[in-house]
Structure formats: C-alpha cells, structure tokens
Amino acid sequence: MIKPDAVAAGNSGSILKMMEAAGFEIVAMKLTSLSSKLAGKFYEVHKGKPFYNGLVEFMSSGPIVALVLKKENAVLDFRTLIGSTNPTNAEEGTIRKIFAKSLEQNAVHGSDSAENAAIESSFFFSMLEMKLEN
Ligand code: GDP
What we know:
By secondary structure, the chain is an alpha+beta fold.
C-alpha cells in the first residue's frame, strides 16, 4: 500500500516505478481511501498500542494506493525495498528512506508474511480483480 502521506505528496508514480524496477509485477491496483473504521480493522494487531489512534487517524486522512504485487520471494524482497519502519534507520535507497516523513507517516506498507499478504490482498480486492481462480 502507498500510504496517504506519499499519495498526498505526489510520490505514487515514483514509488510505483521503484517497485517495478525491483522486479515486482503489479497484479492489482486501486486508488481508494480507508474510513477510520476500516483503518482500525486493517491495523487491528496494533490495537491498544500508544500509536494506534494516531495511526488510524493518519491512515484514514486521505487516498491510498492498494496493490497486489507478485515476485519470487516477494514478502522479504519487498521489506528490503521499503526499508525499516522508522525512516531514520532505513537503509539508503529504500522507499522509506527516500519518501517517508516520519515513523508514522512512512510512505508505504508491506505485508510481513505470505499469510498476511493473502489476508490483506482480499481486504482490498475481489478474486476477480486479483485474477485468481479456484
Ligand atoms: P511495518 O510492518 O514496518 O509497517 O511496521 P509495524 O507493523 O510495526 O507498524 C505499522 C505502522 O504503524 C508503521 O508502518 C507506522 O506507520 C506505524 N508505527 C509503528 N510503530 C510506531 C511508533 O512507535 N510510533 C508511531 N507514531 N507510529 C508507529
């Protein structure tokens, strides 16, 4: 996901370009936005943490770009491409190092496991949109 800070700053195109240059295929993509209820659900795992309410407010503050990306070893390689959660610690050349505004407003989200990637993809996209068949 490209988060509201990066979409608002006009960085979506540059970030998509970095994803494609790193070998990720765009399987599904949409510009949409999260209500605070949906943002709260998306980040439910962080409920109760001190940053949760601020995170929900930020994530529902404006449009986001939701994406399903495909690549061998996608989860790990995408985490490498985006860099550490805190941009201060992110490696040079990573998306967060280049585009993040702060620890909270850190430009992009990436799934942390294949299992969560499947859950998060179906949060935004239907089977039809993901071109999945069963
Ligand atoms: P990620 O998987 O790298 O996105 O990191 P997490 O799952 O741990 O956290 C989810 C999101 O919550 C991060 O991407 C940040 O936007 C935000 N976040 C995480 N930790 C903090 C924190 O300590 N303070 C604040 N303000 N936001 C945080």
